[in-house]
Amino acid sequence: MTDHLPSPADDEALARDLRRHRWLAGACLALAAGGWAASHAPFMPPGAAPALRAVAEAGMIGGLADWFAVTALFRRPLGLPIPHTALVPRNRDRIADGIATYIDREFLEPAMLVEQVRRMDPADRLARLLDGQDGRGKLVDLLAGMLPGLLRQEGEAPLAHALSRALSAGLSQADLRPALAGALRTFVTSDALEPLLRELADRLIHLVHTQRGWVAQAVAGKSRWWMPSSVDRSLAETINEALLGHLWDLRSPHAPAGQDLRRWLAALPDEVEEGSELAQRLLEALRQFTGPDAAGPLIRDLLAGLRQAALDDLDRPEGHIRSALHGVAASLADALKQPAVRDRLNETVEGAFTAALPRWRQAIRNFVADTLKKQDVQSFTQRLELRVGRDLQFIRINGTLLGAAIGGALYVLNGWLS
């Protein structure tokens, strides 16, 4: 059995072999014809001529009949429109369906394939592969060698676009109020709330303190012409002090304003969950942030960073990915030492194979039939003849020799009977 697919060189060798055997079959027929011609020659002894003629005639009949039968399979003999000839070209589609049906029945029968899977014992094969460091190392090298191809840069843009569109579509259809309310509820009850409120209050206090002149200018711009400037300055200073004091109260959880702020924040998750106007504005902002225009570049940058980090890690013999793969392989090897785990793995493989087999079976059958039907009729006929034509020439050779032998036997039998 060959271990490679047929190549043009194989077809050329088959064609040469077919021509050689055609010449051999033709030589046998020519030999019979020569014997028949010789039987009519005047130099033939009278007693030998009838015997030679009987043998040669029977050989010619057998050889010509088998030549006609073999030739009629692939083409019209002598180009004549004889009925029931050129059988292969005329029945290409039926032959394709027949080959596909044969493969389906003889090789894709579920019971037969499932039995082969059981004999393979996938769990035992995997356990033997992972039994030693060399086997695990080969498996890890194989998996690590596959990852750079899966992480190629060409697929980043389509993947990022697909992820961003899927994220946007999913969020636009989902009711995000419970999720957003849950996230807010977790935040307002966490230890991060007070530091954040203090940081925000401190920054606002610093902003108001450094922009005192802006408040003074605003008060002076709105003041009447007859109002003394000293009153304007005093009013601006009062406003600044009031703002600073209020911000300081918001900073403290013990001041009334700070307590009011924290009570409002505590009630905010329930308000969002009930669908208030604020909740709608928050959800709309979230959807805009996760839309393709906003989330697309972020996802692309994230994928690019992850890809480069993974490739850099794979280049190191002691990288985290290889270490993780070694750990998984070692853990799997230990688990496969238990008979229950091995039986469960075999059952899972067999179940998955049995579930997928009907789709595979129909797909393989259709693939074989459609591939053969799409071939050019002449090409299909030539390929088939190349594969079986050499053996068919032996039919011609045997027909000629067997016909000659039968002719001789009948000549002897006729002489004995008469």
Approximate helicity band: over 70%
Beta-strand portion reads under 5%
Instruction: Please indicate the count of domains.
Output: 2
Report the major sheet: none
- Low-confidence regions: none
Broad shape: elongated
Distance between the termini: 55 Å
H/I helix tally: 18
> What's the SSE pattern?
HHHHHHHHHHHHHHHHHH
Structural class, please?
Answer: mainly alpha
Radius of gyration: 46 Å
**Overall pLDDT:** 80
Q: Which oligomeric form is depicted?
A: single chain
Question: Can you walk through the features of this model?
Answer:
With 418 residues, this protein is mainly α. The protein contains 18 helices and no strands. It has helices spanning 8-39, 48-74, 87-90, 92-107, 110-120, 122-129, 133-150, 156-173, 177-188, 193-210, 212-222, 229-251, 256-274, 277-289, 292-314, 320-335, 339-374, 377-417. α13 (256-274) packs across α14. The relative contact order is 0.15. The model has no long low-confidence stretch (mean pLDDT 80).
